[in-house]
């Protein structure tokens, strides 16, 4: 069972819906129970696979690890269907990037040629100095402009934090590669290392998602007078 990934344990493809994952978990677990299987290792593997696939964020991290570490096609998925799904995903990514580029060009062209002076050289968010926001959209006037600048300062802070976490993960992985050449970690150290990497990946995923939401939704809402509540990252429960 250890040679199969989480999807293959349930006889599913990597595109399975949450409803299909839940149904497959109940079906396989019930099959073991009806047959009187008491292998704790198998039942633990099923529970672990379900806990990952039922959590959207942990599932995204797991799918990414499958693509990076051992790219393969699920046994339950026909080859033609897998290739088609991969092409569609890449097409969706390309279209998203194209739309983002067009939106950026449109926004730049809509900006006034004369810059609007900013009242303060630095916008303070907590105790960290953040570069002052660029000119707010023309739709943000008076108090709305201040709301837009506060939301933009949050965006800049998240982007800096994301770069810091990505650099931290990159440095940590390089350190682990160098240690493997010189020594072997014990089982406890290996588990701690895997937990630390998963925590960093989880935070990077969250920061990326928040930056996208602020860019696409919350900045526009702030320009119209609605300042959405600041979100705080919550680490996963081990």
From TrEMBL:
Is the keyword Chaperone assigned to this protein? no
**Gene3D superfamilies recorded:** DnaJ domain
Q: Which domain of life is it from?
A: Bacteria
Sorted alphabetically, the keyword list is: Membrane, Transmembrane, Transmembrane helix
InterPro entries listed in its UniProt record: DnaJ_domain (IPR001623), J_dom_sf (IPR036869)
Pfam families, per this entry? DnaJ (PF00226)
Spans through the membrane: 90-108
Map out region (Disordered) in residue numbers.
170-194
**Domain spans labelled J:** 5-66
- What's the protein here called? J domain-containing protein
């Amino acid at each position: 069972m250890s040679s199969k990934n989480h999807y293959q344990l349930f006889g599913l493809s990597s595109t399975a819906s949450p409803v299909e994952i839940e149904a497959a978990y109940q079906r396989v677990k019930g099959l073991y129970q009806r047959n009187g299987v008491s292998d704790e290792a198998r039942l633990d593997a099923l529970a672990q696979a379900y806990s990952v696939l039922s959590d959207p964020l942990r599932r995204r991290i797991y799918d990414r690890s499958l693509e990076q570490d051992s790219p393969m096609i699920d046994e339950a998925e026909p080859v033609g269907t897998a290739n088609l799904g991969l092409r569609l995903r890449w097409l969706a990514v390309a279209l998203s990037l194209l739309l983002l580029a067009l939106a950026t060009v449109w926004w730049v062209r809509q900006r006034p040629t004369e810059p609007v002076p900013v009242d303060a050289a630095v916008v303070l968010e907590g105790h960290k100095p953040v570069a002052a926001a660029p000119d707010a959209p023309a739709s943000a006037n008076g108090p709305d402009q201040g709301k837009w600048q506060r939301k933009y300062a949050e965006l800049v802070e998240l982007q800096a934090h994301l770069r810091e976490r990505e650099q931290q993960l990159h440095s940590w992985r390089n350190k682990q590669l160098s240690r493997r050449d010189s020594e072997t970690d014990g089982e406890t150290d290996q588990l701690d290392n895997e937990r630390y990497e998963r925590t960093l990946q989880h935070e990077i995923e969250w920061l990326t998602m928040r930056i996208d939401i602020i860019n696409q939704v919350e900045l526009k809402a702030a320009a119209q007078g609605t300042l959405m509540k600041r979100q705080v990252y919550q680490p996963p429960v081990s």
